[in-house]
Amino acid sequence: MKTQSVLEKVLKSGNLAVTSECGPPRGTSAAAVREKAELLRGYCDGINVTDNQTAMVRMSSLAACILIRQMGLHSILQMTTRDKNRLALQSDILGAYAHEIDTVLCLSGDHPKFGDHPMASNVYDLDSVQLIQTVKQMRDDGKFQGGADIADPPKMFIGAAANPFADPFELRVARLAKKVNAGVDFIQTQCIYNVDKFEQWMEAVVKRGLHKEVYIMAGITPMKTAGMAHYMKKRVPGMDVPDEVVDRMASVPKEEMAEEGIKICIETIERLKKVEGVAGFHIMAIEWEEKVPEIVKRAGLYPRPEV
Amino acid sequence: MITAERKPMEEIVECARNFSRVLLVGCNECVTVCAAGGRKEVGLLASALRMHFMKEGKNLEIIETTLERQCDPEYIDELADSVGQVDAVLSMACGCGVQEIARRYKDKHVFPMVNTKFMGASERQGVWAERCQGCGDCVLGITGGICPIARCSKRILNGPCGGSTGGKCEISPDVDCAWQLIWDRMKSLGQEDRYEEVMGARDWRTSRDGGPRRIIREDMAL
Q1: Which of A181, B96, B158, B179 falls 20 to 30 Å from B165 in CA-CA distance?
Q2: Alpha-carbon span A15 to A279, nearest angstrom
Q3: What value of ipTM does the predicted structure carry?
């Protein structure tokens, strides 16, 4: 074991791991954070806390992670390199670890253009691969990126994202390999709707043996409405929503759409359980956290293992 | 070259409003090539300004000139006589030229007439695009001759990110994904195997992060 992370323990035990996510509020309410996180208690092994998701200002990921950790739950610190340089990123990692947050997800983040501060300067001192290297160096060598020694290094379990649906497809396995070379421990993928394409990617991952070097958690997001399916297909960068998924959502009456979305999501999980190399699921129920327990139960992923 | 675009007329008019005699100075280098501040543009802007103030019932006297290079003190000196005759200088050069005038003529107002944009190249007639950010430590030799720092919207050195779609950047279908271009070049050069080498964190001191930069050539300095 590289760390004390519960997520690492579950993955190592060979059980399918489950993570979920909480978007912090666009305001100061600690209660709002606690309320969302409480819905997930007992249903996942770690709770990702997004970092100014879609480049919109929200309560800081670190602050919300601390609130969740204080509830006895295991928060996963999402960090984008968009808003902070290497000084700020590393100091947040130290602070997180001081609060017993031991799992981090290294991201480049959506461009500011998509958010409510398109006029902001974007930092990108590091990219996501270099952030992985930085956190690994802090953990394994006990050194800051700049080379100085760290007193009591943070033992972080290091995650990153992978998007099998972005272009060029032929590079998507190679880019994962790059993250593996940089030292990533686990991957959470982009939401999977095009399961065929995901399987194709996974096959290539397995062929190279990368699934033995990194735990790959499949990203799942339930759709609430046909409108959401349509929006994700058309507007979200790097998202691949096949027509049949949009059509299936649109084929049911409005009041049944939510249930249809959950059904699709459970069918997807069931299918992905059989795919070699899938080590778990990352269930991102965006502003719909109350549905996570139901999804986890219906997908046969409950109860969560004691580790 | 350094590219520039002329400022909006309203802003230019406000710069000139409080003066009766101004010197309008073009530059024969980059801003001439990108048709923003050469001799021709000096002439056009001078006419437009005269006309504007004439309509307002005000007479603005404009001396027009274009220097070989505004970023070079040798040429800036040539302005001494005309600067002495005016209340303000309106420079059509890039920001470097404007600052050279300010440095040489300390008691004279100087206003930029263009917005300096980027170091770029001409993609086709009338279209210029950014190519270089002057980071001070060129990586083009290992990125297939395409710069990820200037041309990736996130200046990602280990791209492409998850937003690359159909060869385009997530920020706009009008922007090429630099890493798609880099990958295409690597393929045509038979260097696919080099893609997986991780490019480590950069030392940005060679860029603007290290403070204002200078080049000192002892062999040339007087």
Answers
A1: A181
A2: 8
A3: 0.95
